[in-house]
Every structure is written in C-alpha cells, then in structure tokens.
Design goal:
Elements: H1 2-18, H2 23-30, H3 32-47, H4 53-67
C-alpha cells in the first residue's frame, strides 16, 4: 500500500517537473522495494550534516560534468 502511494507520488512529481517520467524513475517504479531503498538512501544523504552543503554542490557539479550532463 505504501509502495503504491510512493509510486504514484514519483510519477506526479516527475511529470510536474519535466512533463514526462524519466527513464530512471520508470525503471525504479517497476521495482518499488528498490525505489524505497534508493529514496531512503538519498534522503539520508540530503539530511546528513557531516558534509558541508557547499561541498555537496561541488560534488554534484563535478559528477554532472563527468557524465556529460549539461548542469
């Protein structure tokens, strides 16, 4: 029940942001247990206070440049 709600929330969120559902989210929606695990991991990273937010932003920019994402 909770995973179904999480699935619906993810679809609504992606459509609101970009107008379509991304490939990654589409794959994760097929495996809701993995989606829940990834969501928990990402949430923990966002709220962890061990790394300064400035360094997190720099890591995101560096990662985007390495994979060729126009960040």
């Amino acid at each position: 029940m909770i995973l179904e709600k999480l699935r619906g929330y993810g679809k609504v969120l992606m459509r609101a942001r970009s107008g379509k559902v991304s490939d990654l989210l589409r794959l994760l929606l097929k495996r809701p247990a993995i989606l829940a695990g990834v969501g928990g991991y990402e949430t923990a990273l966002l709220f962890s206070g061990r790394v300064e937010s400035r360094l997190k932003a720099l890591a995101q920019i560096k990662t985007a440049s390495l994979v060729g994402c126009p960040f």
